[in-house]
Amino acid sequence: MTEATIKEPKATAADTLLKIENLKKYFTIQKDKTVKSVDDISIEIKRGETFGLVGESGSGKSTLGKTIVGLQDPTEGTMFYNGVDLSTMDRKDKALANREMQIIFQDPHASLNPRMRVGDIIAEGIDAHRLARGQERQNRVYDLLERVGLRPEHARRYPHEFSGGQRQRIGIARALAVNPKFIVADEPISALDVSIQAQVINLMEDLKEQEGLTYLFIAHDLGMVKHISDRIGVMYLGKMMELASSNDLFAEPLHPYTQALMSAIPVAKPGAAKRERIVLQGDPPSPVNPPSGCRFRTRCPHAMSICAEIIPDFREVKKDHFVACHLYN
Ligand code: SF4
Fold first, then answer.
1. 297: Cβ below 6 Å to ligand 1?
2. Mean pLDDT across 42-66
3. Domain range summary for the chain, segments of one domain joined by +
4. pLDDT tens sequence across 219-238
5. Whether the model pTM is above 0.85
């Protein structure tokens, strides 16, 4: 069957696949209590890049990923896919955009239906988007299994018959089944043994090359995204704190929060200079009642009086290096 693709860019630069403007995702948990999980985030993701997104639990990174792929509706803000505002797309284009944007989840065990055979799990998207039927569908499933390092006969088995790493490969095959252009990988290796993590990362990098994919790769620590990301965004309590190329961020982290995350990464090379460990005091504050001004101020070793009063702008302080901190205003 022939597959349509989304129209070419209109409103954004040709190398921008996804543009997010002032995106907010709030959850009302009780009367008068709102969690601002994603609070006014604006980013662009370039075609073919891996954009790493890091932050502690509760930073809003997973909510941002799920909102981007349409699993949750934004509270406010605009998202352009291929230059077209997603909220103004007609049904046909929206369906195509939904197909081209896929997600891989953190816990491959929880995200695969235990009562379905692996072949049917992988083919779910193929069926939903009517991409193939009969033998063509079957061949496509076999091909996908082989592309992620599994075997065609695995199609008849159930998820519990596989290891954690193999289940994540099945999750990747399911995402690839509909020929996506953009994949949100929501902590795809966090639940895996360290020995398996590198294999899944290598597979994802190979597939990115072969399929021309763009990734939003979400992780809770910087060490995990360092080697695979072209650029990295650092989130804290729903806000973007810093954004730069992976090289620039590691060479010169500017935001005190990024500096603290960086100091916690073990130095792998023998003989390399040790970083001074910056220990953050306390846990992140509740997102229901975040601190006034800079949200990081209650844990920041450099906090000043202005930090409690004014939310720092997210500004470009060096070429392509953005930071939200009064130290750089
Ligand atoms: Fe620290 Fe103030 Fe910068 Fe926030 S704005 S990170 S509290 S110095």
1. yes
2. 95
3. 16-324
4. 988 888 988 999 999 999 99
5. yes
pLDDT of 49 strictly over 80: yes
Nearest to 52 by CA among 196, 321, 244: 244
Q: Name the residue with tokens 């695995």.
A: 154
In this prediction, residues 101-111 reach a mean pLDDT of 86
Is residue 317 in contact with ligand 1, taking CB distance under 6 Å? no
Cα 173 to middle of ligand 1, angstroms: 42
pLDDT of residue 267: 67
Is there an atom of ligand 1 within 6 Å of 299 CB?
Answer: no
b/e code 104-133 from CB counts within 10 Å (16+ = b): bbbbbbebbeeeebbbebbbebbeebebbe
C-alpha closest to that of 47 among 252, 198, 208, 256 = 208
Right CATH for 16-324 from 3.60.21.10, 3.40.50.1370, 2.40.160.20, 3.40.50.300? 3.40.50.300
User: Residues 20-29: what's their mean pLDDT?
Assistant: 95
Q: What average pLDDT does the segment 194-206 reach?
A: 90
Query: Strands, DSSP E only, in 137-264?
Result: 182-186, 214-219, 231-236, 239-245
Distance CA 113, CA 124 (A): 11
**Alpha-carbon gap, residue 120 to 154, rounded angstroms:** 11
Q: Which two structure tokens, joined as six digits, stand for 149?
A: 């390092």
Ligand 1 pocket mutation, candidates 302, 306, 323, criterion most atoms within 8 A of CB: 302
Rounded to whole angstroms, how far apart are CA atoms 151 and 144?
9
Q: How far is the CA of 18 from the centre of ligand 1 (A)?
A: 29
| Closest atom of ligand 1 to CA, residue 304 | 2
Condensed to tens digits (0 to 9), the pLDDT of residues 295-312 reads 999 999 999 999 999 999
> Using an 8 Å Cβ cutoff, are 84 and 47 in contact?
no
Average pLDDT, rounded, for the chain: 90
The identity of residue 300, as a single letter, is C
- Taking 60 as the threshold, does the pLDDT of residue 204 lie above it? yes
